[in-house]
Design goal:
- By secondary structure, the protein is of the alpha/beta class.
- The chain has helices spanning about 15-25, 35-40, 45-50, 55-70, 85-95, 105-115, 125-145, 155-170, and strands at about 5-10, 30, 75-80, 95-105, 150.
- It is built from 8 helices and 5 strands, in the order βαβαααβαβααβα.
- Helix 3 (about 45-50) packs across helix 4 (about 55-70), helix 4 packs parallel to helix 5 (about 85-95) and helix 6 (about 105-115) crosses helix 7 (about 125-145).
- The radius of gyration is 15 Å and the shape is globular.
- It starts with a strand and ends in a 5-residue tail after the last helix.
- The chain binds shikimate-3-phosphate.
Length: about 180
């Protein structure tokens, strides 16, 4: 089993915020695949979608996970919402460590991301419908990929972090 703690889930589920809180508690560095890809490519995620297309972005996600296999220290890794969709990426995630799914409802996503301009898949008309459709396509994939699931609706970030630490501990994934 890999040594990292991996956070997966839909856009707006709180992967980055929880990752940061967890990193303070566990004294582990948090990495974010979107940020690593932006740094590597010198483009924002929106620019990559715009200029190169979604498929190319997905390949960059795969390459990013392959590089993370070389990471010697245990890290918290927050991954982009669509990354677990590729079979190869799920395989790489399993090699990297314990996969935690932060499960959120479409209503919460819509509330949190209303007015967001950084997620190319939610731009244009009727973002609520897009969230609902994508969530329907993805929720089974997230669930099957996960070692642990945490429902995040109605909880504050510290509560979620504590629940996550407890579940990691009980699953023997953390001391
Ligand atoms: C995506 C989620 C985004 C980012 C890109 C595509 C997706 O990351 O990778 O916009 O397909 O769900 P966050 O989940 O961090 O928003």
């Amino acid at each position: 089993m890999g040594k990292h703690i991996i956070l997966i889930g839909f856009m707006g589920c709180g992967k980055s915020s929880i990752g940061i809180r967890l990193s303070y508690r566990l004294r582990m560095t948090v990495l974010d695949t979107d940020k690593l890809i932006e740094r590597q490519s010198q483009m924002t995620v929106s620019e990559i979608f715009d200029r190169l297309g979604e498929e190319e972005f997905r390949s960059m996600e795969t390459a990013c996970l392959e590089r993370l296999l070389q990471e010697p220290e245990a890290r918290i890794i927050a991954v982009g919402g669509g990354l677990p969709l590729r079979e190869r990426n799920r395989e790489l995630l399993r090699q990297l460590g314990t996969i935690v799914y932060l499960r959120v409802t479409p209503a919460t996503v819509c509330q949190r991301l209303s007015g967001d301009v950084t997620r190319p898949l939610l731009q244009g008309a009727n973002p609520e419908e897009k969230v609902r459709r994508l969530m329907e396509e993805r929720s089974g994939i997230y669930e099957r990929a996960a070692d642990l699931v945490i429902d995040v609706d109605g909880k504050d970030m510290d509560e979620i972090r504590d629940e996550l630490m407890e579940k990691l501990y009980k699953a023997g994934r953390w001391r």
